[in-house]
Amino acid sequence: xxxxxxxxxxxxxxxxxxxxxxxxxxxxxxxxxxxxxxxxxxxxxxxxxxxxxxxxxxxxxxxxxxxxxxxxxxxxxxxxxxxxxxxxxxxxxxxxxxxxxxxxxxxxxxxxxxxxxxxxxxxxxxxxxxxxxxxxxxxxx
Length: 141
Fold this sequence. Notes:
About 25% of the residues lie in helices and about 15% in strands. The protein is α+β, with helices and mostly antiparallel strands. Strands 2-1-5-3-4 form a 5-stranded mixed beta sheet, covered by helices on one side.
């Protein structure tokens, strides 16, 4: 199928198989390896991207579902969104950063408790949740 979309502000057009996931398109065809594949069942959040401004699990989204959409990956976000020191191994970083960007985009200030709840769909293998939530909290200031 023919697919047209914008990725990190750049138009992309190409042929894709109908069963190709958005994560596989981003990683394998476009070389955007920042979108990690963890569980491949939409549970861990490592593959989170913004699809027309909304957080979406790219492992569960077919590439053809993004027809005409704007996709934003971790590579398209400011590098200073969440400090590096908030992460241990870094595997979960991309999903947390993209999820945080979606949360912060409305300009609403949230408590640490709210942020912890809103980010609970992302799994950290190192159990480093507190520094991550604190970093996102500080990004609001």
